[in-house]
Write a structure and sequence with these properties.
Layout lengths: L1 H19 L2 E3 H18 L3 E5 L2 E4 L6 H12 L4 E2 L1 H8 L9 E5 L11 E5 L6 E4 L2 E4 L1 H11 L5 H10 L5 H10 L6 H12 L5 H10 L9 E8 L2 E9 L4 E6 L7 H16 L3 E6 H6 L1 H16 L6
Parallel strand pairs: 5-6, 11-12
Antiparallel strand pairs: 1-3, 2-3, 4-5, 7-8, 9-10, 10-11
C-alpha cells in the first residue's frame, strides 16, 4: 500500500521538477520523496539516472536545454556549455546539435552519457549565463563548434553564426586568439581576412570563396561602387561585359515591405542603365550552390551571346 499512498507526493515532485528545469540531485530528491520514493521513480522509469547522484525527468530527458543543464549541474560550476550547443542556447535559430558540447577542466572525470561530448582540458575565462546555464561567449562557441565539426562542415558553422548575427568577424578573431589550437586555422584565417578586407556579410564571403569559383566566374568583380541614374550604388558583384549585377540578399535584411520596395527600385535603376540584376539569397548559396553556379553562368553566357552585351 505504501507506493499507492505516496503516489500524490511523487506526482507533485515530478510536476515541480518539470517546471524547475528537469534536473535534480540525489540529495534534493531524497529530501522531497525519500529513498523509497526515489527508488520507485527510477525503477518505473519516471526518473532517468545520468550520472552519480544526478537524475533527469524522463519526459524531458531528450530535451537539449535540459541535457545542457544536466551537464552543467554535473560540473558543479566548472563546466561550460560549448560549441553548437552554446550557440543554440544563445539563439534558438541556430541548429540544435545531436550531441551536447561542453568544456571541462582537465581534472574532471569524463561524462559517461553518449549524448554529450565533454572535452577535458580547460574552460575559457569569460562566459555568459543563459537561463541559469553557463555557456561560452558567442565568438568562443563558434570557434569551438568549428573545431568539433567535420572539415566539410566548418565553413557552414561560421557562415551560419555570422548570418544570424550571433557574433561579428572581430569576435571570431578574438575567440581564435584565445584558443591554443584551432583546426584548419589557415582556412579560418582566409575567411576572416575577407572581412578585414572589406566584405560586409557572410553571404558575400560564401559566394566569393565557395560558390562562384573557377574560370567561368573569373571576370566577376566584387563590391563595386557604381553611379546609376545619378545615384551612388554598390554592387555586391558584377560581370562588366555581360552587364550583369549580382545582388546577395537574405530574409534578415530584405524582409520588410520598405526593404523590398528599395530592392525593386534598385533593380529598376539597374535595368534602366542596361544592367540585369540577379538576386540570390543566403539560403540559395548555402543549400543549392550548384544551382546558383549554373544559373549565373547561364545568364552570363546568354547575355554575352547577344551582340549588344559584348
Amino acid at each position: 500500500m505504501a507506493p499507492t499512498v505516496q503516489e500524490p507526493r511523487l506526482a507533485r515532485f515530478l510536476a515541480d521538477l518539470a517546471v524547475s528545469g528537469g534536473v535534480v540531485r540525489r540529495d534534493r530528491a531524497l529530501v522531497a520523496v525519500g529513498r523509497r520514493g526515489l527508488d520507485s521513480l527510477v525503477r518505473d522509469g519516471r526518473l532517468a539516472r545520468v550520472a552519480a547522484g544526478l537524475y533527469l525527468h524522463h519526459a524531458l530527458a531528450a530535451d537539449h536545454e535540459v541535457r545542457c543543464r544536466a551537464v552543467s549541474v554535473w560540473g558543479k560550476g566548472a563546466v561550460v556549455i560549448a560549441g553548437a550547443s552554446a550557440l543554440h542556447l544563445l539563439d534558438g535559430r541556430y541548429p540544435e546539435p545531436a550531441r551536447i558540447a561542453a568544456a571541462a577542466p582537465s581534472d574532471r572525470h569524463r561524462f559517461a552519457q553518449a549524448w554529450a561530448q565533454v572535452t577535458l582540458g580547460g574552460t575559457p575565462p569569460l562566459r555568459r549565463i543563459v537561463r541559469g546555464i553557463p555557456v561560452m561567449l558567442p565568438g568562443d562557441a563558434v570557434i569551438d563548434a568549428w573545431c568539433r565539426a567535420s572539415p566539410h562542415e566548418r565553413k557552414g558553422v561560421v557562415y551560419e553564426a555570422l548570418w544570424l548575427g550571433l557574433c561579428s568577424a572581430h569576435a571570431l578573431e578574438e575567440g581564435a586568439a584565445r584558443r591554443h589550437r584551432v583546426a584548419q586555422r589557415q582556412v579560418l584565417d582566409r575567411i576572416l581576412r575577407d572581412f578585414r578586407n572589406g566584405a560586409t556579410s557572410p553571404t558575400e564571403v560564401m559566394a566569393r570563396r565557395d560558390v562562384f569559383r573557377g574560370p567561368r566566374f573569373a571576370e566577376l568583380e566584387w563590391q563595386v561602387p557604381m553611379q546609376v541614374r545619378g545615384r551612388a550604388r554598390h554592387a555586391d558583384a558584377l560581370h562588366r561585359r555581360a552587364r550583369v549585377v549580382i545582388e546577395l540578399d537574405g530574409d534578415r535584411y530584405h524582409s520588410t515591405w520598405k526593404q523590398r520596395a528599395a530592392d525593386r527600385e534598385r533593380d529598376a535603376d539597374f535595368a534602366f542603365a542596361g544592367w540585369l540584376a540577379v538576386r540570390l539569397g543566403y539560403a540559395d548559396l548555402r543549400d543549392r550552390p550548384g544551382w546558383c553556379r549554373a544559373t549565373v553562368a547561364g545568364i552570363i553566357a546568354s547575355r554575352l551571346a547577344v551582340p549588344h552585351h559584348r
